[in-house]
Design brief:
Blueprint lengths: L20 E3 L20 E3 L20 E3 L20 E3 L28 E3 L31 E3 L8 H7 L8 E3 L20 E3 L8 E2 L8 E3 L8 E2 L2 H5 L10 E3 L4 H20 L1 H4 L3 E3 L6
Parallel strand pairs: 1-2, 2-3, 3-4, 4-5, 5-6, 6-7, 7-8, 8-10, 9-11, 10-12, 12-13
Protein name: Putative leucine-rich repeat domain, L domain-containing protein
Keywords: Leucine-rich repeat, Plant defense, Repeat
InterPro entries: Leu-rich_rpt_typical-subtyp, LRR_dom_sf, LRR_R13L4/SHOC2-like, RPS4B/Roq1-like_LRR
């Protein structure tokens, strides 16, 4: 049904109880019927780039759902039943006017496990109205707040993040041993939270376009690539000198983009810049390390 002129789903669709995929991007559908919950075999639901404004509460009945894509829709709020999708692995909410995520994503009825325990991919990029996240107060009192949020998350895309307390958000994530891609590009924070170092498997960190970012004090231990392109306010990167001299180099670091980091380069001075070139031409080149300094690609 990709790019068709369909405006609503026929009532007969509920008879297709064995339907596994419902792909409706760029259609004219404005709403999903309440009876959508009868499609209990549905594995993938894609309504991206449609004028849909809300999801029916029966969405929580889709207990087999593996992937939900509502990107570039008009959805401002998710039903609390979203927390019942305990086997959901991929959730794309990018470019929506969503204001907050329901607390049900962190607990299901009987409050034993987090609602989205199997989530591996979460895209919240370019959601300008999303400024809050379920707080610790909304979590079950018998469980620590940092044990619930997305324990199997592998990829988190949070471009254009407007969260007022990024550190709290990252601290409450329970995916320290599973997250390997984190994209915070274009976000508004001024320092990289120290808790970033807890993500022991993180390989790719994208901070490009974080124009207010001024300081980086910590890096995850197994980072392979970090993108700081156009971090125009960045002034301090406390471990950079040691990285260049390989005194404190994360074991797998291979790529670092410092394009247009003019303030950082000014603060580092020519001595560190020369170390950068020397490191690139010597040990780091032999190790396959790629370094993109300010406006220079070697």
């Amino acid at each position: 049904m990709f790019m068709t002129h369909i405006k609503e789903l026929p009532s007969s669709i509920t008879y297709f109880t064995s339907l596994r995929e419902l792909i409706l991007p760029e259609t004219h559908i404005k709403e999903l019927p309440l009876s959508i919950g009868d499609l209990t075999s549905l594995v993938e639901l894609n309504v991206s780039k449609t004028p849909i404004r809300e999801l029916p509460s029966s969405i929580g009945d889709l207990t087999s759902l593996d992937e939900l894509d509502v990107s570039e829709t008009l959805i401002e709020e998710l039903p609390s039943s979203i927390g019942d999708l305990t086997f959901l692995k991929r959730l794309n909410l990018s470019k929506t006017p969503i204001r907050e995520l329901p607390s049900s994503i962190t607990n299901v009825p009987h409050g034993v496990y987090g609602g989205l325990q199997h989530l591996e991919y979460l895209n919240l990029s370019w959601c300008p109205k999303l400024v809050t996240f379920p707080s610790a107060e909304s979590l079950p009192l018998m469980l620590p707040s940092n044990s619930l949020l997305f324990p199997q998350l592998q990829r988190l895309y949070f471009q254009g993040c407007q969260l007022s307390v990024v550190s709290d958000f990252l601290t409450n994530l329970a995916c320290a041993s599973t997250l390997w891609i984190l994209n915070l590009s274009g976000s508004s924070f001024d320092s990289l939270p120290a808790c970033i170092s807890k993500f022991s498997r993180l390989e790719s960190l994208d901070l490009s376009g974080c124009k207010r970012l001024r300081d980086i004090s910590e890096l995850p231990p197994n980072i392979r690539g970090i993108n700081l392109d156009d971090c125009v306010s960045l002034e301090r990167f406390s471990k950079l000198s040691n990285i260049l001299e390989q005194k404190d180099t994360p074991g797998h670091l291979r790529s670092m983009n410092l394009s247009n980091c003019n303030r950082l380069m000014d603060n580092l001075g020519m001595d560190v810049v020369s170390k950068m070139a020397k490191a690139l031409l010597n040990q780091l080149v032999r190790a396959g390390f790629e370094l993109i300094p300010n406006n220079i690609l070697v």
